[in-house]
Amino acid sequence: MDVQRKKGILDICVLAALMHGPSYGYRIVSDISCCITVSESTLYPILRRLEASGCVSTYKQEHNGRTRKYYKIETPGLQKVQEFLDEADEMKRIYAFVEGAHL
């Protein structure tokens, strides 16, 4: 997959994972691994970028004696997911066009 396209898709997948509730890095990787491959070293820059843009917020909480950083989706993140979903029909038409031209 094209690097730029994958970057945008990863952002959406991370936000979609957070729509189920606050989560932490390793769990997010596990949650999205069913549809796209991402490593923790790739995930954290995405999370920092999403936090800087206001799409996610963070907080720390103790878990089994360790402090864990949690990420929570915010309104701009929800809007970004909705915009992606709103584009789905257009993307389907583009894929159909490309497939038709390829035949």
From TrEMBL:
Pfam families: PadR. InterPro entries: ArsR-like_HTH (IPR011991), Metal_resp_DNA-bind_regulator (IPR052509), Tscrpt_reg_PadR_N (IPR005149), WH-like_DNA-bd_sf (IPR036388), WH_DNA-bd_sf (IPR036390). Residues 14-82 form the Transcription regulator PadR N-terminal domain. Gene3D superfamilies: Winged helix-like DNA-binding domain superfamily/Winged helix DNA-binding domain. It comes from the Bacteria. PANTHER family: PADR-FAMILY TRANSCRIPTIONAL REGULATOR, TRANSCRIPTIONAL REGULATOR RV3488. This is PadR family transcriptional regulator. It comes from Caproicibacterium argilliputei.
